[in-house]
């Protein structure tokens, strides 16, 4: 498969929204109920990039997957923890796109000084569990029946990967300061 991974820009919002909207409408992979518009997606990308990486995988000029990091929790002591997310166009599932995105994203987060990455996976989802575990994330627990979508309750499992194990932790380096490296 011939694709490249690069930093996303708000100009990628249309392609990203096209991948994400069916996940919102047709699955419980996302707990959003209404897909964000292209403008909302562009704003999300722009809001993410100063602090966290937002990456896309591109094939023949078209975005076929994306991965990003986001704040784990709002309280200050959580600042060394980060949530990670990956979405891949179904036409290229099981072709290494998600793995390639995470193989770029996770080392950047470690370099930034994040101590641990967390991924929430709506259950069941064998494909998502498989990629996360293959990349070294381990399941740490499940929130049973935490979300209600498509007429039923859904549980979410949580996976974790240690990144930067320095103690005391270093201050987080914003993505905008290291993205050119």
UniProtKB/TrEMBL annotation:
Gene3D superfamilies linked to this entry: 3.40.630.30
Name of the protein in its database record: N-acetyltransferase
Organism listed in the record: Pseudomonas veronii
InterPro entries, alphabetized: Acyl_CoA_acyltransferase, GNAT_dom
GO MF entries: acyltransferase activity, transferring groups other than amino-acyl groups
Domain N-acetyltransferase, residue spans: 3-164
Keywords, ordered alphabetically: Transferase
UniProt xrefs under PROSITE patterns: GNAT (PS51186)
Transferase keyword on record: yes
SUPFAM superfamilies: Acyl-CoA N-acyltransferases (Nat)
